[in-house]
Amino acid sequence: MKTTNNWLLAAVLITMICASCSHIPKGAKPVSGFQPDRYLGKWHEIARFDYVFERNLNNVTATYSYNQNGTIKVLNSGYNYKKEAWKSATGKAKFRNDRSTGALKVSFFGPFYAAYNVIVIDQDYQYALVAGKNLKYLWILSRTPAIPAGIKQQYLEKAAAIGYDTKGLIWVDHNK
Fold it and tell me: 48, 62, 98, 171: least CB-packed within 10 angstroms?
């Protein structure tokens, strides 16, 4: 009986761990035909949900380049308007599967990775909609500090169809 209980406990724990390891919200799908070389370079954060690592930041950018080992270097920076100081963090990204799918994992803290899913990107790689692991993480990115109204509307509609509450997005100022 004790062995059966241990197996049952192990099965429940594995199920709970796997359920919490979801890499993308239900209804979202990373883009296929993703071209990492075209994604490299500087992106301006147009909108995001509030979370601790970007709290009080505006003028936020993310710059992607290759590390020597083939992973992607991620340099995030932004201006903390309350502390009146620039803040930056360097991390790395790896593809979860093949490089032609926009499903990556990003780490800024050692062995801990977060989901990074490019779910929409235009054909010229100028605008991107990026989902995290759940409906608490979403970013609209642009190569420039502004985004055309039509693209903005398209991305908001896509996010809402997945289940995101887009009214909660923070629209990032780019004034520095």
Answer: 98
